[in-house]
Fold:
Amino acid sequence: MGDFGRGICFTELLGQEKAKKLILRSFATGRLPHAFLFKGPEGVGKQLFARGLAAALNCRDHDHPGACGSCVSCRKFRSGNHPDFMVISPEKGAIKIEQVRQMCQALSYPPYESDTRVVLLEDVHTMRAEAANSLLKTLEEPPTDNLLILTADSSREVLPTIISRCQVVPFHYLSEQDTVRILAEQPERPDPEAAHLLARLSEGSPGRAGLFLKTEMIGIMKKVISVIADPDLDGDRDPGTLLKTAEVMAELKENLPPFLGLLKIWLRDQLMLACDLPKRCGSEGLMQTGDAGRGKSRSLRQLFAGLQAVNRAEKELARNCNRTLVCEVLLFNL
Structure:
């Protein structure tokens, strides 16, 4: 989607109906907390929702709880230049104490032109201990006329003391239909068949699906599967093919971890297929024409070993091991 997708109001976003009801109830009662924690999977719209909520809070049209999209405040939100909206994002993978201190200093002043200043702290699960302790002081004694919206990945740990001082709003994966509709609004709009494949493989995360689309990850994945599914390929006899494929994977750089997640989905589907179980993600679309019929017949032991090999590769990347070497070892183990 664009910066605000179908509009600049959170009520116009696709999915997350439970989150909408919780926020609208707060609007209706006039009892907004001093801090929200939007917690859910990566790429399902938490930050986009937060921006839409900020726009709605400061909209000059008070006839409805959403944002009108046309008043002075909404136009500033749309252009990304609203003086009473702050965004704090991780720097080099973490929110640092200097960022929190600067935020606290800004909160000591009243909003410039709105009733409420909104601060969005993205990915607070990346926050270092000293930064988290500094934030706790603000959450314990929040300044008036300010709303903090924290976002966190549900698979990552957040300090219980932070959670207890926020109203938690759960976010969930979107339906395949909603994910396809969101992909249709992307500049790189995929064809319907590709959109449904992306929606299935992203497991309802439009952000992840968009990443797959922009990086042409599906095409790379098909090449990798074509190599590892080739029954004639022998790592001892044809190492050059595996090494060249590893180079292609390593070129994904910071997008290599989500690529490995995609590879795990395919291996998991192969495992479910081998067990004759129906609950699969539909990754058969990753197979090149003819691959399904000539693919290697893998035992359950081999499929489990493959999943373990990908898990090891993920851990090695997290330790900043050489990407190309990690990919080479992985492919030789698959």
Remarks:
- The mean pLDDT is 85.
